[in-house]
Amino acid sequence: MTVSSFCSLSLNPPLVLACVDRTADLHGQLAMGQRVVFNILSAKQEALSRRFSEEDDSRRFDGIGFKRDRNGIVVLDDVVSAIEGSIVDQHDGGDHSIFVAEVDGAASSDLRPLLYYRGGYAELER
Asked: Which of 82, 73, 70 has the alpha carbon at shortest distance from 109?
């Protein structure tokens, strides 16, 4: 599932928010207040981003490297960051839901992030 928007919300307590289309395949699971991992993809993972944004999720994880966190949730290999937490709140946002998660674990790397901007993929310039 692809998140439309993701950002930091609060440092104390550590909160992030994610905006998800109500028609997304995993929307219902998020709405039940489950544990979640946000995988922040690296610049080399555009094909993976495209795969996860497709509606047919039957073969989504075929051939993809991943491990499971301490709660059994998928953390993809070679991501910029994996942010773990629990959904603590949900708000209506038009055709999306805004999910608030309290962060209780994270890992990061020095890889460059994959950016999606104005309908296409972009690179960070230094």
From this structure: 82
pLDDT digits (tens, 9 = 90+) for 80-113: 999 999 999 999 999 999 999 999 999 999 999 9
Cα 80 to Cα 29, 57, 74: the distances in Å are 24, 23, 15
Residue 62 has pLDDT above 90, yes or no: no
Phi, psi of 50 (to 5 degrees): -65, -40
Cβ atoms of 82 and 114 closer than 8 Å: no
Domains of the chain: 5-118 (2.30.110.10)
Q: Residue 67 and residue 76: Cα distance in Å, rounded?
A: 7
